[in-house]
Structures are given as C-alpha cells and as structure tokens.
Amino acid sequence: MIDQSRLWDAQAAAEYDTPGEGAFAPEVLGPTVQRLAELAGGGRALELAIGTGRVAIPLHEAGVEVAGIELSAPMISRLREKVGAGSIPVTEGDMTTASAGEGFSLAFLVFNTIANLLTQEEQVACFRNAARHLAPGGCFVIELWVPQLRSLAPGHGGTVEVSDPGYLLVDTYDTLAQRVVSHHVRFEAAVDGARGARIGRTPHRYIWPSELDLMAQLAGFTLESRWADWDRSEFTADSRSHVSVYRLPRLEP
C-alpha cells in the first residue's frame, strides 16, 4: 500500500500554494467558498484533507467555523504559518478514521482528493467517517473529476491533460484496477544552456459518479444535487468534473 503521507512531504507542501493563480485564483475560490458557506447554513464545517488551507481559510474569513483533518504534517505546518489552531483546529490523521468531533452541519472534500484513497473500501470508509461527524440533516460535498476514458486512443493507455510552458501533465490508466497515475513534469530554468526537468507522480483511484452515489448510500446519504461546477452549472455527459452534495436524513419532528 502506498503511504500517501510520504507523497505530501515538505517539498510538496512548500510548492503547493500558488497565490492568485490556478486553484488559488479568485474566480475558482470565490464560488467554492460562497457555495460551501451557503451549505453550512450557519453551522460548523469540517474539511477532510484540509491541506494548507486553500479553501478553509477563506471559508473561515467568510464567517464559517471550520475544522479540518489532514494526514500530512508538512501540509499542516504550512497551514499553521497562515492561521493559528485557535482559528482553524486540525486533527492530524487519516480521513477514513480520524475524528474531529461531532455535530457538524457540513463536511467537504474538494479538488479530487477522495481519489487519493486507492481502494474502494477506503473510499467507502471516508463516506462513513464523514457521516459520523455530521448532525442529522448534515451534508457531505465532494468535488471530483470525471474519468476521461473516452480520450484514450485505441491501444494507448495515457492522455496528455495539460501542456503549458514549464509544465506537462500526463495521466496513465489501468482500467482493470481502476487506477490512474498523474505524471507531473516541471521544466526548470536553463543552466549553462541545458534545461532540466523534475517528474512527480501521484496515484489515484478514479470513481464514476454512479459508483460515488452507491458509496454515499452505504453511508446513509442521499444525493441532493450534482453540478458541473461550483456555479451550479448543469452536469452533463460532457462535463469533466462535478460537485456532488449528499445529505443525511433529518430527524423526524
């Protein structure tokens, strides 16, 4: 079994934040935080795999009480450089088993992170752990990409997902094991006429939306909404990602 905490080491934590760009761009974070604040409904929110606080910090600044669970100590240390434990408490541990308390109105897992769990059993356990943290009627929100198997050419096992100056992302698929490995190639500045490159690899277990819904049912959730993005745009057969909102049953009056 791959130790995910070793993948998210000190170097990964140091390079994770890209202020104002990519996943940290205002046009990405703004709708994310707005939607999560609405779903929290004035209650407390729990972020599984809180990382360096990309979403949790602006959500806290929007007036939502936020706590987190995070496996990587270096990622927690990076978060602590930005906000103290009194503002956003974090439990160090696995998001399938660690406990940060009970009675939350909202739990959320964004940016494809449930796919970091590499077995179906672990992914189901994550749903069940989210349910344990929530009050009756609470919701669990997952942001996840849709596997792009239609992009695979016959006889080929990989796709180029990003090709930018300085960065190349190639995904390779094992369709029998339902695994994908993302190969991140970052090109470095030329030194003495030579340009080097660093390669990092992250494994994932991809999940179809229908399988995700079944995992939710096993943990007691019902699918409430599914959008193509945080702006509530319609989810279609051509959507490359989705935001899914699952709800626990409310108490009978």
Sum up the structure in keywords.
four-stranded antiparallel sheet; 2 domains; Rossmann fold; alpha/beta; seven-stranded mixed sheet; 25% helix; 7 helices; 253 residues
Quick gist of this model?
This protein has 253 residues and is of the alpha/beta class.
Account of the 3D structure:
- The chain has 253 residues and is an alpha/beta fold.
- It has 2 domains: 4-147 and 207-247, Rossmann fold (3-Layer(aba) Sandwich), CATH 3.40.50; 149-204.
- 25% of the residues lie in helices and 30% in strands.
- The protein contains 7 helices and 11 strands.
- A 7-stranded mixed sheet has the order 3-2-1-4-5-11-10.
- β1 (45-48), α4 (56-61) and β2 form a beta-alpha-beta unit.
- The relative contact order is 0.13.
Radius of gyration: 18 Å
SSE order: HHHEHEHEEHEEEEEHEE
Share of residues in strands: 25-35%
CATH class placement of the largest domain: Alpha Beta
Distance between the termini: 46 Å
CATH level-3 fold name of the largest domain: Rossmann fold
Report the CATH architecture of the largest domain: 3-Layer(aba) Sandwich
Under CATH, the homologous superfamily of the largest domain reads: Vaccinia Virus protein VP39
Q: What is the count of distinct domains?
A: 2
Q: What does the average pLDDT come to?
A: 91
List the uncertain runs.
Answer: none
Strand count, sense and barrel status of the largest sheet are: 7 strands, mixed
Which structural category do the helix and sheet elements fall into? alpha/beta
Subunit arrangement of the protein? single chain
Helix content: 25-40%
> What is the number of E strands?
11
Strand order of the largest sheet: 3-2-1-4-5-11-10
